[in-house]
Design goal:
mainly alpha; 0% strand; 80 residues; globular; 6 helices
Length: 80
């Protein structure tokens, strides 16, 4: 697991977004792809089964799952 444990830190979510996000409210930002009712761009408000495919494309998901090197070197990566 990475040293940056919360999706809201990695994605730089503002207070208004965090207020409505179940990952933040439940303090489960280290594995937000397993939380229904997140407000991220990958699967906002969707159930886990529907959003997980998009989550796998998320830079935070990839970072948390040891793919940081791959993400950082991939075309179009704009940083954290």
């Amino acid at each position: 697991m990475s040293t940056l444990n919360a999706c809201w830190e990695f994605m730089r979510c503002g207070p208004e977004k965090k207020r409505d996000c179940q990952a933040f409210l439940q303090r489960r930002g280290g594995y937000c792809w397993l939380v229904s009712g997140t407000v991220c761009d990958q699967g906002a408000g969707e159930s886990i089964s529907k959003k997980v495919r998009r989550c796998r494309e998320c830079n935070f998901y990839r970072y948390q799952n040891g793919e940081l090197y791959t993400v950082a070197r991939s075309p179009g990566f704009s940083g954290v």
